[in-house]
């Protein structure tokens, strides 16, 4: 049986600085989605990387007395290290300075040109280097003699140069129809925002620059480099071997199933990208999902405020799996969320140590003491036992639904309901008393609890891969029995178990040195 392909990408980050927690958030969310699909039997391709051209890179490098390429090399390596530290299971880490990216970008350009969608003219208007974006006059405001983009608050500068244009205006109606019929961009709030922007009228888009040279050369005119967003968006198909669309890789994985990006770049992904693809005669990705922004203690991260959080510090303070869990459980995916040290400590101590950790610890240590360190043999199930088992087994379908909508927080909430029920079940059954009065019944209760933990651990694997692997080891579940398709293979009584060990210790404040 061939499995269904699933192609997921993150945005590719600008390596003009080092990665922060917002980048980590996106990488983790995409990784969780990719792992979920793999466990669900899909043939997954997952790509992430860095976006290395453009004026922002060039000016930052100049300030640091470096070449843009040197800056890109240094920081791209930091992003890759971050991904590795976070357990991000990418298949390719693409850099837009990779050799195959130039021919891909030039090929899509030529296709758009052949379609009659590119013409030479002159651009005169506002440009934000920070956003690498053009703004119409009415999208900017003047404050103290400096003009800023209203939506992002970044400085804009007047730019006048010869430029190639893309006939974006031509695609206005088709774009509106796309949002109307396919949804295309999620969540709904973003779609409404984008649709209303497009309804307001689209201008043709300036797609080349002449005042600097750090970019992909425009085919046939070396004075121009491509506007960074043209080559940046193309990364998604470079990664599949474009312009060769006949390869197995391209045939299998294009169109992408999901571009996971942040809300600040939804315009580029849901207006420009579909228009470029139509123009080049390529299919559109099935979905663009724009997640919210991660704030720190409720505030926007900024170098000047000094509240930029380095993901490596969080991993060393709290551990990787708790961080991954916290980010996806705490924030409603699609909305803005806030990181705080208090928040993560609370989640560790309540959801992880108290709820799931304690349930596993209590039941597994009783099994070790009283059942010869093997999965207990059980008697007939009571109605309560059966309900508990059924509730755990019934998690898979709705959790899969949640994941298909990128509602990670909902899936985790749903799973933790069952964990709470299992804790109540365990407490109400009092197996420690049954030990003296009815040993068979005690074993049945321990069996039911262990089986519920197995179901939970299977589904939580994408979010906390290392901890759940440990938990499944403790339950004696073989490594090749951990796909979602294995969920109906209940624990086998008599299976030998390893010595129990806590999976989620409580968070303790580090002692003063
Ligand atoms: O936008 N919270 O790169 P980038 C959550 N190169 N997400 C955040 C965030 C925060 N505080 N800050 C940034 C670019 N992000 C382009 C993308 S794709 C073809 C080109 C997200 O380094 C942001 O929304 O500014 C984006 O999805 C990603 O991090 C990279 O941002």
Automatic annotation (TrEMBL):
<keyword id="KW-0547">Nucleotide-binding</keyword>
<dbReference type="GO" id="GO:0005524">
    <property type="term" value="F:ATP binding"/>
</dbReference>
<dbReference type="InterPro" id="IPR023457">
    <property type="entry name" value="Met-tRNA_synth_2"/>
</dbReference>
<dbReference type="InterPro" id="IPR009080">
    <property type="entry name" value="tRNAsynth_Ia_anticodon-bd"/>
</dbReference>
<dbReference type="InterPro" id="IPR014758">
    <property type="entry name" value="Met-tRNA_synth"/>
</dbReference>
<dbReference type="GO" id="GO:0005737">
    <property type="term" value="C:cytoplasm"/>
</dbReference>
<dbReference type="InterPro" id="IPR014729">
    <property type="entry name" value="Rossmann-like_a/b/a_fold"/>
</dbReference>
<keyword id="KW-0648">Protein biosynthesis</keyword>
<protein>
    <recommendedName>
        <fullName>Methionine--tRNA ligase</fullName>
        <ecNumber>6.1.1.10</ecNumber>
    </recommendedName>
</protein>
<keyword id="KW-0436">Ligase</keyword>
<comment type="similarity">
    <text>Belongs to the class-I aminoacyl-tRNA synthetase family. MetG type 2B subfamily.</text>
</comment>
<comment type="function">
    <text>Is required not only for elongation of protein synthesis but also for the initiation of all mRNA translation through initiator tRNA(fMet) aminoacylation.</text>
</comment>
<dbReference type="GO" id="GO:0006431">
    <property type="term" value="P:methionyl-tRNA aminoacylation"/>
</dbReference>
<dbReference type="InterPro" id="IPR015413">
    <property type="entry name" value="Methionyl/Leucyl_tRNA_Synth"/>
</dbReference>
<feature type="domain" description="Methionyl/Leucyl tRNA synthetase">
    <location>
        <begin position="6"/>
        <end position="140"/>
    </location>
</feature>
<dbReference type="GO" id="GO:0004825">
    <property type="term" value="F:methionine-tRNA ligase activity"/>
</dbReference>
<comment type="subunit">
    <text>Monomer.</text>
</comment>
<feature type="domain" description="Methionyl-tRNA synthetase anticodon-binding">
    <location>
        <begin position="375"/>
        <end position="507"/>
    </location>
</feature>
<dbReference type="InterPro" id="IPR033911">
    <property type="entry name" value="MetRS_core"/>
</dbReference>
<keyword id="KW-0963">Cytoplasm</keyword>
<keyword id="KW-0067">ATP-binding</keyword>
<dbReference type="Pfam" id="PF09334">
    <property type="entry name" value="tRNA-synt_1g"/>
</dbReference>
<keyword id="KW-0030">Aminoacyl-tRNA synthetase</keyword>
<dbReference type="InterPro" id="IPR001412">
    <property type="entry name" value="aa-tRNA-synth_I_CS"/>
</dbReference>
<feature type="short sequence motif" description="'HIGH' region">
    <location>
        <begin position="13"/>
        <end position="23"/>
    </location>
</feature>
<dbReference type="InterPro" id="IPR041872">
    <property type="entry name" value="Anticodon_Met"/>
</dbReference>
<feature type="domain" description="Methionyl/Leucyl tRNA synthetase">
    <location>
        <begin position="150"/>
        <end position="363"/>
    </location>
</feature>
<feature type="region of interest" description="Disordered">
    <location>
        <begin position="488"/>
        <end position="513"/>
    </location>
</feature>
<feature type="short sequence motif" description="'KMSKS' region">
    <location>
        <begin position="300"/>
        <end position="304"/>
    </location>
</feature>
<dbReference type="Pfam" id="PF19303">
    <property type="entry name" value="Anticodon_3"/>
</dbReference>
